[in-house]
Amino acid sequence: MFCRPHISIVLACLILLCSTSHAASIEVEDAWVREAPPSARTLAAYMRIINTTAADLSITKIASPSFKKLEIHQTSTTNNMMRMHKVEQATLPARGNLTLEPGGKHLMLFSPKQRFKAGDHVIINLSFSNGSQHEVHAIVKKDNGMSHHKKHNDDSHHHHH
Asked: Could you report the per-residue pLDDT of 2-19, keeping only the tens digit for each?
């Protein structure tokens, strides 16, 4: 019989943990979605997900009201062939981050329910193994190849006619 009070203490602690610590356990930076042609059935999203807790976390669910399905994919190059495969388990190391970027891991958004243009926002809900959730507002941007690497010297372009 005397194990029952113990259970209620554990439950109380769990409720406390969920309500206090989860707000700050995840931070997301630089979330963006690459603009695609109107006919595109999939879009790609990129972001940096930062785990501020002292424990490893894994992403348990990714959803968006604007898409049917979301998956993390990894781009790998084998014999000069670019391949993409679904990442079954994406882990955020304790006090570390998971960077989803072009050429590496990225988020695939399947079957958009509307047309997204540059400047639009996409809401992506991430769920984590510690029960926390994070709502990401990703901005849709045109991706002009490598433009974001050389945007500092845009002013100095000389136009040849």
From this structure: 555 555 655 555 555 544
